[in-house]
Amino acid sequence: MMGLGKKSCMPHLIDFGLTRSILDPKTNKHIPFVAVKQMFGTCRYMSTQAHAKYEQSRRDDLISVGYIVINFLNGGLPW
After folding, report:
1. Strand intervals (E) in the chain
2. How far is 45 from 77, CA to CA, in rounded Å?
3. Which of 38, 35, 57 shows the shortest CA–CA distance to 47?
4. Maximum distance among all Cα pairs of the chain, rounded to whole angstroms
5. How many whole angstroms from its chain centre is CA 3?
6. What is the pLDDT of residue 69?
7. pLDDT at res. 77
8. Is the CB of residue 74 less than 8 Å from the CB of residue 61?
């Protein structure tokens, strides 16, 4: 998405497609780590942890943003 007004040249990355809560609603504590059976997301921007089929976390979001920034710096994105 692109910003409005003075920020019209600033891109914003927004993706709520795979969101979930990181806190257990009953205990209000962080959910436990688990291995998953399938991968979710775009393989090109997934972290090595996600490729190993570990549950994705906030760390993986930052790694994905890093991959996108690298593509921006190289002159373009594939889409």
Report:
1. none
2. 11
3. 57
4. 46
5. 20
6. 85
7. 58
8. no
Q: Give 49's contacts (C-beta < 8 A, 6+ positions apart).
A: 56, 57, 59, 60
Cβ atoms 26, 32 nearer than 8 A: no
Reduced to 3 states, what is the DSSP secondary structure of residue 78?
coil
Cα–Cα–Cα angle for 20, 21, 27, rounded to 5 degrees: 150
The domain ranges of the chain are 21-73
The pLDDT averaged over each successive group of 10 residues in the chain (79 residues) is: 83 75 86 74 77 80 84 71
Could you give the 3-state DSSP secondary structure of residue 46?
coil
Unique residue bearing structure tokens 């990181």: 22
HSE toward the beta carbon, residue 63, CA cutoff 13 A: 16
pTM of the complete model: 0.58
